[in-house]
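Progress against Task 2.4 (sequence-to-structure conversion) is shown through the following example record, which the project officer requested during the mid-term review.
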Amino acid sequence: MTSQLNVDTIVDKAGSGGSNVKMANTSTYVSDGGAVTQNTVQGLCKAWAFKQRSGGGITDSFNMSSIDDDGTGYYGLNYTNAFSNVAYIPNQNIRGGVAAGNSDGHFAEVQTCNTTSAECQNWYGDAGTNATFIDWEVRHTFFGDLA
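Structure tokens generated for the chain above:
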């Protein structure tokens, strides 16, 4: 038998407004156009971090336990909850301009995806022998399946 609950607002028993909602990993939502449904849990960001430009620390994060400094421009982001496999999607955004006297731009990249961490590097110049590694301010997001 199918059930349907129609409400405008869900609040806690005391009526104070806060509530905990738990969804199964098979929960779906209807697309903007209404033509298809998508898995809600699959579409959520599973981890993110705002890495400081200097000092290598994390200013704010979700599902990150720590950052390790592997040298100028090299660092690892360690997850609180592991991914189920290494086939997840990392995304980076750098804040800052092109380094003075260099027109090749600047780059942030996840070099290695592990189930419990991501190894990253930041540089400016070309990706070859002329690269200069530097600590940029980087925003990382990760999408995939948690274990």
